[in-house]
C-alpha cells in the first residue's frame, strides 16, 4: 500500500547563509525546517496539507522525532530531501533521507511522528481520523 508514489515526496533545496554557523555548517536545528518543507510536499500529494487538516477539524502536532546526522551540509550545498509516509493508522510517521545533490551521498536520516488532535476539543485521537483514510484512498 505505501508503495504508492503519492506517499513519497522529494524536494531539492540549497543551503542559505542564514542556516549555517560560523564554520559554514548547517546548524542542527535547521534540519527540522527542511523536513517540514518535504513533509508539506508529501501531504499535499494526497490533498491533506495543513490547510486541509485545519479545515477538517484536526491539528497534527509533532510529538516525537529522531535525527541521525551522518555527514554535514554546508553553505550553498544543494541537497535533496525525501519524505516517505511510513505509518498512518494511529499516527503519521514520516521518514526522511537527505542526500547531496551532486554525489547522491546520504547525509542525514530522520523521522517525525504526528498525532491527530481534534481542534475544537483538544482531545488526542488514538486512531487516525477517517478524513485521513479518505484523502489517502485507503480503508482503515
Description:
With 140 residues, the protein is of the alpha+beta class. The chain contains three helices and seven strands; from the N terminus they run βααββββββα. A five-stranded antiparallel beta sheet has the order 1-4-5-6-3. It is elongated, with a radius of gyration of 16 Å.
How do the strands and helices of this protein lay out in sequence?
Elements: E1 8-14, H1 31-45, H2 50-55, E2 58-59, E3 62-69, E4 78-87, E5 92-100, E6 106-114, E7 117-118, H3 130-136
Number of helical segments? 3
Q: In what order do the strands lie side by side in the largest sheet?
A: 1-4-5-6-3
Low-confidence stretches: none
* Number of beta strands: 7
Largest sheet: 5 strands, antiparallel
State Rg: 16 Å
Mean pLDDT: 96
The first-to-last residue Cα distance is: 12 Å
| Secondary-structure content class | alpha+beta
Helix content class: 10-25%
Helix/strand order, N-terminal first: EHHEEEEEEH
Percent of residues in beta strands?
25-35%
User: Outline, from the CA principal axes?
Assistant: elongated
Amino acid at each position: 500500500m505505501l508503495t504508492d508514489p503519492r506517499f513519497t515526496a522529494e524536494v531539492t533545496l540549497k543551503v542559505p547563509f542564514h542556516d549555517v554557523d560560523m564554520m559554514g555548517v548547517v546548524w542542527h536545528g535547521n534540519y527540522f525546517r527542511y523536513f517540514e518543507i518535504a513533509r508539506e510536499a508529501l501531504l499535499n500529494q494526497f490533498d491533506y496539507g495543513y490547510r486541509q487538516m485545519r479545515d477538517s477539524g484536526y491539528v497534527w502536532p509533532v510529538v516525537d522525532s529522531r535525527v541521525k546526522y551522518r555527514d554535514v551540509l554546508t553553505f550553498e550545498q544543494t541537497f535533496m530531501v525525501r519524505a516517505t509516509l511510513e505509518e498512518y493508522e494511529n499516527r503519521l510517521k514520516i521518514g526522511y533521507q537527505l542526500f547531496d545533490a551532486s554525489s547522491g551521498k546520504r547525509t542525514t536520516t530522520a523521522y517525525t511522528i504526528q498525532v491527530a488532535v481534534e481542534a475544537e476539543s483538544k482531545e488526542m485521537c488514538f486512531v487516525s481520523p477517517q478524513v485521513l483514510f479518505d484523502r489517502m484512498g485507503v480503508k482503515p
